[in-house]
Amino acid sequence: MINQYLLKEVISHFDFVGSLLKCEPYGSGHINDTYLLEYKIPHMGVVPIILQRMNTNVFKKPVELMENIMNVTSFLREKITENGGDPERETLTVILNKAGKPYYKDSEGNYWRAYHFITCATGYDEVKCDEDFYQSALAFGKFQSLLADYPAEKLHETIPDFHNTKARFAVFKDAVEKDVCHRAKDVQAEIQFVLEHVDLAHVLGDMQASGELPLRVTHNDTKLNNVLIDDKTHQGICVIDLDTVMPGLAINDFGDSIRFGASTGAEDEKDLSKIECDMHLFEVYTKGFIKGCDGRLTDEEIKALPLGAKVMTLECGMRFLTDYLQGDTYFKTKYPTHNLDRCRTQFKLVSDMEKKWDTMNEIVSKYNI
Ligand code: ADP
Ligand code: GN1
Ligand code: MG
């Protein structure tokens, strides 16, 4: 928990207008510390602001990261304006600090940033109806097509090898060997599951190297709650959490959404009998994502979408297991076996996708027109 004095110091370095009514933790992200601030401005009402302490354990170069976000959001703002959209609601707006910088480094060395709060919109932690999931698919697909001409060489790699599953596998094996918390003996079945799926850890890297899958500017963290859905129109309006926008594979953006949103249970559900990959939701998302990408995906990419889903799910489970073995230093956890529970749901999903593999491919081919 961050102390109040530090929060006061941070807030005093921004030019927020009005009197502060509220400052409280917000959202359910696993990485940054997010606060909702509310300011009362006479004759204008209450203005909400998002204040975030960036996780510098995860993002080692916060200044470069903010440079990415400033560049990407100003590019998106222009595109959205050209297309007749509302850039205030359809992309993030960074609030500069009093010194004109997009971040503030506090006296303890933490990096903070502030965004305009996008009102009357929600980032859902679970799929409540098909239409919301479809809208999130459209939004993530559109995000990719809007950034299709973005000069990728301008982007810093905010986390090296973020979705390099082969490199993730090597880190996992090292965590098993070192076993710093003596937890490996309790998770032999999960370790075995990863070892049996080593081929999956290599396949996308090989397809990229052979030119079968092109590198694009992608979001790389396409969880359902990273897109805000308008409370009134129910349209997916704004893709948020831009920390991981980097060159990547389109099928990974697709896959990360599937592992989270097409699951019939929460990411940390303990009762694995509740976890399946729902083929109806898979179809809903496939239809929306292909439409949102607006003809940018190649035939090979569309055909490889089910593979993206399987690999991203395996990778995420492997990352949770690695973090569990390393002592829960990366993802925020609420109890000691939280990462283990998360890893188990992912592996259950991979097994379920294996059973439904033919159906997944048939669904994708229906929309490959
Ligand atoms: P994390 O990397 O920890 O997931 P996010 O940037 O996704 O952090 O923010 C956490 C949550 O805060 C989001 O899921 C969303 O609910 C909310 N949020 C973030 N930015 C905004 C914004 N500009 N307007 C409204 N809500 C936001
Ligand atoms: C993290 O930041 P958040 O909660 O949207 C993680 C993703 C994982 C996800 C698992 C930067 O996403 O890669 O898939 O948790 N983000 C980072 O829930 O590691
Ligand atoms: Mg998030």
TrEMBL record:
InterPro entries according to UniProt: Aminoglycoside_PTrfase, Kinase-like_dom_sf, Pseudomonas-type_ThrB
Keywords recorded for this protein, A-Z: Transferase
One annotated GO molecular function: transferase activity
Annotated protein name in UniProt: Phosphotransferase family enzyme
Signal peptide: none
Start and end residues of each Aminoglycoside phosphotransferase domain: 104-261
Top-level taxon in the UniProt lineage: Bacteria
Pfam families to which the protein is assigned, alphabetical: APH
